Amino acid sequence: MSHANARLTPRGREIAVLRVQAGWSRSHVAAAMGCSRNCVGRWVERFEAEGIDGLQDRSSRPGSSPTRTPEETELEIVRLRVEERLGREAIAQLVGVSPRTVSRVLARRGAPALAALDPMTGELIRTSKQTAIRYERQRPGELVHMDVKKLGRIPD
Questions:
Q1: What is the pLDDT of residues 14-53, one digit of tens each?
Q2: pTM higher than 0.90 for the full model?
Q3: Does the N-terminal or the C-terminal CB of the chain have fewer CB atoms within 10 Å?
Q4: Which residues contact 124 (CB under 8 A, 6 or more apart)?
């Protein structure tokens, strides 16, 4: 998502397209908008192909991931962690993938670290290190935090 003062927000892209449609050259529009001719051309082409919806922000997530670990392999990795309580190197050796792939799969599936599990039962015994209470305010400066530490002898 672009910030509020960015030139090429969806509204700025629409202005660029309207200027090209009004007869401005793409290079003049690019100079006025502070971007390249290729950028202006891209937005004009998207507008012509998709209309006003083509000027909206898009996700940068790929449409497909052909090299992603297969579902069966991921399920086997999670099964080995939950039932056998094996570490990533042992799982990687059994399944035939790299230890880093095992780590990514376990993180994606939300499997807890071995240190958080009971060695005998495999039940979760430690919670996450994240604090449960967050202090959020509407405006900066609403919540003031002070550390008070007596570093010297200050008389009453």
A1: 999 999 999 999 999 999 999 999 999 999 999 999 999 9
A2: no
A3: C
A4: 112, 116, 117, 118
